[in-house]
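ingest -> validate -> predict -> emit
validate: passed (alphabet ok, no gaps, 255 aa)
predict: started
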Amino acid sequence: MIEHRIEGHTCIITIANPPANTWTPESLLAMKQLMVELNANKNIYAAVITGQGEKFFSGGADLKRFQGDKAAAREFISRFGEAFEALMNARFVTIAAINGYAMGGGLECTLACDMRIAEAHAQMALPEPAVGLLPAGCGTQNLPWLVGEGWAKRIILTGERVNAETALRIGLVEEVVEKGKSLDAAKAMAERVAGLSPKSVEFCKALIHNARNGVPRGAGLSLERERFMDLFDFEDQKEGVAAFLEKRKPVWKNA
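emit:
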């Protein structure tokens, strides 16, 4: 139910569980395992995640899989956490191409990505409290970081559904495109990522996450300088400077 293919330095991942591309424990485990596999592949610089079809990115968890079964629910939510934390902490850049409804665990998947591109008809929500649950796929933690506490409370605590235009305005997504264009737009963004030093991008992503993870500002600034110097231990740093001085495109080796 998690399909993927590699195009150049980009992995295209598709949530494929029609009709609503819901998550199951099996697909969440597959997502976690795929992140491990891609992290080990030095030729992967970015990943794009989308949903199968034209209507749903993902409708969230398949509630039938744990209805009335607390043990099953515990396993399910553990899988959510493991999969989406692996997605958040991926070495490479992750981009969500939101091609339709992103509800509950579907929206949480996009929140675990580095960037989000939504199609104009997309709808986003975290409706778990409406069925006596809460967004435990990292949603209560990631959403306030992106949109602020006020909008996070509005979406979670009042069940408000957000359209693409509003999502762009509040910072939930970085770009809105026409229907059917999100995958192309995300792939184009991934190509821009591939033009940068993958090791530099990896370090930058980790440093940006430090602020979110509560690393004190002074320690973060110190680590920033350390990582700058660490880059001099890699071939790509030498290649990048040489290419600039020679007025040519660099050939990255992620080494």
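The mean pLDDT is 96.
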